[in-house]
Amino acid sequence: MSSAVLWLAVLSALTAALRGGLLPKWLPGMNPFPAAKPGICTEDDQKSKSWAVPDVIIQWGDRRSATTLQFQTLCAAMLLMHSSEPEKVICHYWNGTIVWDVLLSNCYFGTYWVMKTHNSTAVRDFASVTFGRRIWFFATAMSTWDAQFVPWVLGVPVKYVQTMRQLSLKGYFIVTEYQRIFGLSDDQLEVLLQYMRYWHTLRQCCGRQMSFDFRFSLLNRTWRRHKKSSSMYHACEAYDIGAVERAVMNTRLITEHAVVPYVLKRASLIDGEFNGTWCTWYLRQVACQKLEGQWGPFEPYC
Question: Which segment of the chain is annotated as a signal peptide (predicted)?
């Protein structure tokens, strides 16, 4: 989302607040957000939950603002916080507005959700109908300027806004920011860093949402979006992608959990599962079938 579009969204939200008489609720020191509604969850159930960490995490951001990297980080962090019951951690993309099944399953079955969405209405729905669940919101933005307006646009308190500027400077080490937020131990952070080191490379160099620069290279195009001296140039041609894929499958995050959310074994939600050779196979299809944009391979395969 451009700064201009985001600013217009802020103005629209302010206008709606003024018309609805809501602006006083947004003043500093006051809570503008809906109170948690116990709903069907019993008081005993609520008291038994640990409020130090969230039951549900919602990740929001505009497309191409590194939302998948933040979503993947949050999913891995949720898994690490619940390593003793990994089968209860669910990470999924959600672009609708109906949230009941997520919150009810969390209430009845003790599941822990990490949801990614590009839909700001869905975010507000989660905030207004919580059933007493502890929901944390995270977001991405293109710049620090954009980031300051995200809570106003979404209408919810946001734990952390990750910017493209930060990512360009820190790379996958940006995940260290989440240690303090979730209270991860040094060992848990090491597990997270090990995984993200390899997954971040595959995210840029494998799959339907790979780097434009690498895709153009595979298609023998001379044009590049970034100069090779840029921190945003991922130098995918320098990697043995098959070896990187096998490395991510051998990380502690994957091997030390009997069950892991399916997204942690993919470069994106629309790609195939890592198996040690999937990325090499996909790159061959891109070059052979001349796959543009986010097109998927088609039969007969190369």
Answer: 1-17
pTM: 0.81
Q: What is the pLDDT of residues 260-270, one digit of tens each?
A: 999 999 999 89
Residue 66's closest CA among 246, 196, 185, 179?
Answer: 196
In the chain, beta strands by DSSP E = 56-60, 89-93, 112-117, 135-141, 160-163
Calculate mean pLDDT across residues 287-302: 93
> Is the domain of 212 the same as that of 278?
yes
Choose the final residue of a domain: 184, 199, 214: 184
The b/e string for 235-265 (b: 16+ C-beta within 10 A; e otherwise) is: ebeebebbebbbbbeebebbeebeebbebbb
For residue 53 the two structure tokens come to: 């960490």
Contact 79, 112 (CB under 8 A): no
Q: Is the pLDDT of residue 78 over 90?
A: yes
Residue 176 and residue 302: Cα distance in Å, rounded? 40
Are 284 and 250 found together in one domain?
A: yes
Looking up tokens 């945003």 gives: 232
